[in-house]
Specification:
heterodimer; A: mainly alpha; two-stranded antiparallel sheet; about 75% helix; about 0% strand; B: mainly alpha; ND/Mrp_TM (chain A); transmembrane (chain A); CPA3_Na-H_Antiporter_D (chain A); membrane (chain A); Membrane bound hydrogenase, MbhH subunit (chain A)
Chain lengths: ~525, ~120
């Protein structure tokens, strides 16, 4: 049972996704079913992390008579589909399952009035399958397949409110971007297969010699994944998609974006880790992209009137922090002294920021969804005085806004501080940009707070009430996580983040297929 | 020399198709044509994969009842790229169906397929 854990991680949500359309007549049951399935996957992913911490890299081979069998007799290289899970894979799996659970819980009341909910929950579970597959797989082609699954399910969810033209517009934008990006990923995979005759990540990373063809493949992979994770200059699809998607899907869609970020890290750190000189240059590109992303994202956010669109631009801006942190680490990857001094800290900051950002940005987007649920509008100029009517939402918003601006007791501070500290060592300018971005972030959230929650109560919201319980529960869980992660960052860093960083740095461990070969 | 060109012929076509595909996505205003551009890109990538595994004068990659000289791996067309291509074709069908569905829905709401006019989301 326990040795089949990696397969179950995919099998259970996939089973859930295919059963969900059967609840056509009883749409409430579909919601309960989705909550149940996602809750089970949360447990499984925690178990997976425990196993990884206990036994190191887990290798699971599909279709072998024993899961531990890596090399079928007579072959020198693995030819089967493999899952290879190390610290960062398990870390991303925890983020993905947790956010799917929160999203399903929130959706229970948020989309109750819509029709076709059994398909909504089927797509939600499929999106989860796509993300989990992307972060757990050890096979390049598998990565492409799961990337497409996540892309299709995600864009179908973006266009879920198909009675609105805007939803279809955002959906087709997202789909075109993800289709082109994943086709280019497939093209790069074709190049690598043509050269090395294998699709296994660990195997190719051992063989890679970085000739011209490899460079083309690396460039294609880097650009495509940067496009899919919404880094500047390919960020234009993010605000549309995040704005139009129902707020319950926002957490899952965020994680699916960061699954592409994970793929970017995996490609840079594992697949092409052996090229020592150019890698520093790649790291610089990643850091500069990060700085540009955070700065352009936040300046675009300042001028928005639509509350969800404003927060979506912040999502772009925060992606920049992750790129910066991990980019700094990548720059000094082959310099052991600098790596020990600040490189590891920077990467820990970047990776810690992934889970922190997923938590508080989901919280913020959910409060925006709650505002929409109550007022029926997303325009900030038409809201006002909602603080008394929706006290819990207001509190959750304050926690989220404080966290995203990096105020001390909340989780945003914990990871941003690591990034400031360490990027300063590489180049002080990077840290300066990061701090300015934080201040601008705070400024734009003060704007939202003042126009939506403060001010005189408006007459048309006389009968506004707090949102239903499942939405509140989902938001309160996230707010508590914000505070907990902020108060005890060391626990999270030790248990989750540093294993993930070590997994990225120790490439040799990944290449050995779990002690075999 | 001419033999070399013939060997590389599929790859020249791949490059050509990629160029046409990107041109169509970038410069055509009709949404359906953009979708067709993505289909062309997909055709290029699929052709690339199949051409990678092709062995001139090779045998089909089926082991049952294969002639003895096919047992040498050098004489057999690579099976993996063909499997990859099949998977990618199936995925491509799903993607294009979804894109066309979105296009139909957009036409219903906006009354046009001109991408320069479908711009309610901006800023």
């Amino acid at each position: 049972m326990i040795e089949h854990l990696p397969a179950l991680m995919i099998a259970i949500p996939l089973f859930g996704a295919f059963v969900a359309p059967l609840f056509k007549k009883k749409q409430n049951l579909a919601a309960v079913w989705a909550i149940l399935i996602t809750a089970v996957t949360v447990g499984l992913s925690l178990l997976l992390m425990y196993q990884v911490r206990l036994n190191g890299v887990i290798v699971y081979v599909f279709g072998a008579d024993r899961p531990t069998l890596v090399l079928p007799s007579g072959y020198k290289v693995p030819i089967r589909i493999m899952f290879e899970i190390d610290g960062i894979g398990a870390f991303m799996a925890i983020s993905a399952t947790l956010m799917s659970f929160i999203g399903a819980l929130y959706s229970y009341s948020h989309v109750k009035a819509e029709s076709g909910l059994e398909k909504y929950y089927a797509l939600l579970l499929l999106l989860e399958v796509g993300i989990l597959g992307m972060v757990l797989t050890g096979d390049l082609f598998n990565l492409f397949v799961f990337l497409e699954i996540a892309g299709i399910a995600g864009s179908a969810l973006v266009g879920f409110r198909n009675y609105r033209g805007e939803a279809s517009e955002a959906g087709i934008k997202y789909l075109i971007v993800s289709a082109v990006a994943s086709l280019m990923v497939l093209f790069a995979i074709g190049i690598l297969y043509g050269e090395y005759g294998n699709l296994n990540l660990a195997y190719i990373s051992k063989q890679v010699s970085f000739n011209t063809l490899d460079m083309i493949a690396f460039g294609l992979l880097f650009t495509s994944f940067a496009m899919k994770c919404g880094s500047v200059p390919m960020h234009y699809w993010v605000p549309d998609a995040y704005t139009e998607v129902p707020a319950g899907i926002n957490p899952v869609l965020l994680v699916s974006t960061y699954a592409s970020l994970y793929a970017l890290f995996r490609v840079s750190f594992t697949l092409f880790a052996n090229i020592s000189i150019s890698l520093a240059r790649v790291g610089w590109i990643m850091s500069v992209l990060g700085v540009l992303t955070m700065f352009i994202g936040v300046t675009m956010a300042l001028v928005q009137k639509d509350v969800k669109r404003l927060m979506s631009y912040h999502a772009i801006s925060q992606t920049g922090y992750m790129l910066l942190g991990v980019g700094v680490g990548l720059t000094v990857l082959h310099d052991p002294k600098a790596l020990a001094e600040f490189g590891k800290t920077a990467m820990a900051g970047g990776i810690f920021h992934i889970i922190n950002h997923i938590i508080y940005k989901s919280l913020l987007l959910m409060t925006a969804g709650a505002l929409f649920y109550v007022t029926g509008t997303r325009n900030l100029n038409e809201m006002g005085g909602l603080a008394r009517k929706m006290p819990i939402t207001t509190l959750c918003f304050i926690v989220g806004a404080a966290a995203i601006s990096g105020l001390p007791p909340f989780n945003g501070f914990a990871s941003k501080f690591l990034i400031y500290e360490s990027s300063y060592r590489l180049n002080p300018l990077l840290a300066v940009f990061a701090m300015v971005t934080s201040i601008l972030t705070l400024a734009s959230f003060v704007k939202v707070f003042a126009s939506a929650f403060l001010g005189p109560p408006l007459e048309k919201f006389e009968n506004a009430k707090e949102v239903p319980k499942p939405m509140i529960v989902a938001m309160v869980i996230l707010a508590l996580l914000c505070i907990l992660f902020g108060l005890f960052p060391d626990v999270v860093l030790d248990k989750l983040v540093y294993p993930a960083v070590d997994a990225l740095i120790r490439i040799a461990q990944y290449q050995t297929w779990g002690g075999l070969a | 020399m001419s033999g070399e060109v013939f060997v590389n012929f599929p790859f020249i076509i791949v490059a050509l198709l990629l160029a046409i595909g990107f041109y169509t996505i970038g410069f055509k205003r009709n949404l359906i044509k953009v979708v067709i551009g993505i289909e062309i890109l997909e055709g290029a990538v699929n052709l690339f994969l199949v051409a990678l595994g092709y062995v001139k004068g090779g045998y089909a990659p089926i082991y049952t009842l294969a002639p003895p000289e096919a047992a040498n791996p050098q004489n057999m067309v690579l099976p993996t790229p063909q499997a990859l291509t099949l998977t990618s074709i199936v995925i491509g069908v799903a993607v294009s169906a979804l894109m066309l569905a979105f296009a139909v829905n957009i036409y219903k709401h906006y009354g046009t397929l001109d991408v320069t006019k479908i711009r309610r989301l901006r800023g």
